[in-house]
Amino acid sequence: NRTLICRSRELEGDVTSDEEERGIPSRSLISFAEFNHGAVKNKCQTVREVFARQLMQISGLSGDKAAAILGQYSTPYSLLEAYERCGSEAEKEKLLSCIRYGKLKRNLGPALSRTVYQLYCTPGALT
């Protein structure tokens, strides 16, 4: 039942229990139980979390880009449904290209959109 605390490194060496009296600022972060719960390696993940991890395995697809895709399509199933609604192969390849990501609100672009399409919709190796 302990709490992890962040302290300033103004003083070298061990910090004793009288930090507050000496004016060393500290801030409570999380309890040990919360840390322990978050550190479990085999905890259950949602479909959204697994989908995000899959997307981030694609070369050139960062966390910001994955988050932008997840904003539109929260599961692989929703993405596959969107591909099915497209009329042509070219439309499917460009489906994700106009999704905006990051602070600058850039487009994902046609190359990355095509890669994601190939990964989820075509059998065999990526081209």
Automatic annotation (TrEMBL):
UniProt xrefs under InterPro entries: EME1/EME2_C (IPR042530), Mus81 (IPR033309)
Enzyme's top EC category: hydrolase
Main location: nucleus
EC number: 3.1.22.-
Highest taxon above the source species: Eukaryota
Intracellular or extracellular location(s): Nucleus
Short name of one Pfam family: EME1-MUS81_C
Alphabetical keyword list: DNA damage, DNA recombination, DNA repair, Endonuclease, Hydrolase, Magnesium, Metal-binding, Nuclease, Nucleus
GO MF, any single term: endonuclease activity
Cofactor(s) of this protein: Mg(2+)
Protein family according to the UniProt entry: Belongs to the XPF family.
Biological role stated in the UniProt entry: Interacts with EME1 to form a DNA structure-specific endonuclease with substrate preference for branched DNA structures with a 5'-end at the branch nick. Typical substrates include 3'-flap structures, D-loops, replication forks and nicked Holliday junctions. May be required in mitosis for the processing of stalled or collapsed replication fork intermediates. May be required in meiosis for the repair of meiosis-specific double strand breaks subsequent to single-end invasion (SEI).
Subunit structure: Interacts with EME1.
Name this polypeptide is given: Crossover junction endonuclease MUS81
Species per Swiss-Prot/TrEMBL record: Characodon lateralis
